[in-house]
Amino acid sequence: MISPKVKYLSIYEELKKEINEGKYPVGQPFLTEPELQEKYGVSRITVRHALQLLVDEGFIKRIHGVGTIVLSTKELLQLQTLLSFSEENKLQSNHSELISLNTSLEANEVLCSKLDLPKGAEVSKHERLRYVDDQCIGFQRVYCPSYIDLKEKDLADKHASLYQIMRSQGFIVTTAQETIESVVSDEELSNLLKIEMNTPLLYVERLTKDHKNRLVEYAEIYYRGDRYRYHVQLKVP
User: Fold this and answer.
1) Which PROSITE patterns match (predicted)?
2) Which of 18, 105, 181, 210 is most buried as measured by Cβ atoms within 10 A of its Cβ?
């Protein structure tokens, strides 16, 4: 017998996939609770748990007197908790793939400036692809100072966490600064993400520091513009 928890998660995943595929157009009414109960043969509480996950991730919205409508077909990135690329994947039941690793690369002027390194310093570089429902929707290129020892066997796992690897070596990540802008895909990114040239992308540049205020990561992250949107929560100082 399938437990209620597993059941509502499977319903949530199926509905999210159908929204992403365009079965329920943005701005149009979504299925009602009774319709979902009949469709899946489950209780109202199970349906409500599944719907709440879709609400929390920004796919649907409940409007009093109107019902539930579809808000977006894009994955939601919330800028509240600092997670590594793979930790974010694991949280959302997605996965990533290591496609390259260079542990001995001489940093150019830009990298030296970003990571506050002396001229001629060495860095490591690794690249990952991110998948949702087996579709590639993101690419990440990460540079770290050479004193952080990164090995292929540690990074190869699809849920490997860079920040956990750093923590095990005494570099406890605490803060990051991100710059976000809109770009279009070049030939390399188009081939990696399997999209047409000049497709809109979200570009995120991240600089990460540890508990001793050391720069430990410079990341360049590209997300497909048709699959992602950012949510930022701000507070009055």
Assistant:
1) HTH_GNTR
2) 210
